[in-house]
Amino acid sequence: MAVSVSVFLSFFLGLVLVGLVSSSKFDQLFQPSWANDHFVYEGELLKLKLDNYSGAGFSSKSRYLFGKVTIQIKLVEGDSAGTVTAFYMSSDGPNHNEFDFEFLGNTTGEPYTIQTNIYVNGVGNREQRLNLWFDPTKEFHSYSLFWNQRHVLFLVDDTPIRVHPNMENKGIAFPKDQPMGVYSSIWNADDWATQGGRVKTDWSHAPFIATYTGFEIDACEIAASAAATESAKKCSSSGVKRYWWDEPTLAELNVHQSHQLKWVKAKHMVYDYCTDTARFPVMPLECVHHRH
Fold this sequence. Notes:
By secondary structure, the chain is an alpha+beta fold.
């Protein structure tokens, strides 16, 4: 009887607090999207190559609305100037939403730079840049996107480096009803990626290789045919159906996370669009209400 009760409680709790948990091999969650011949598979590791013929990229087999996506990446070693390795989520169409990690290559000995950006209804221009506090070419590090109806978080090894809150009450659009695919790629962007394009890609160092492992998706999966209203309803908690990303403890940063974010901004941020008065003589509305 005790076993039966235990099984019942486990089943009930599974119904009450749910999510789509996917922590798997690459080919169970993703597929190559271009330049298949620039993929190298080594056991649990995936390597993407960039040379003067092509870069490479992959995409998720499904789309998601709310939850957390994580990939562990070891970035291009040595002189990676001109190269960009990207990890991002994006919906489809001209009015798309998008959350970007872009790792901008560097000359040997210089710190790696992460650029993050957010598109809402097709509008981006929300770049922030920071220098990492470790060498991301020596070991794998986790890069995550967490998304619910309250905010979007960018995390590095679970340390928040950026938060984009829902400010619809201030008349600011928030990305909450477009399911997104998950993508990553490596390509040449030496017209802008390193020191504003002053340092070009040195092809004598090719191939440039980004290495991946630890593909994890814990999010609400959406069918390709689902309408926006159906997606939002399916992926929002109601009644006995409670999704983990809607838990009150995840509605805002906790004290420790807030301190971590302040440290990142104070010690490692090198560019914030909110303070770029040359680009934005009038401060963007979301910056007026929230410095993120």
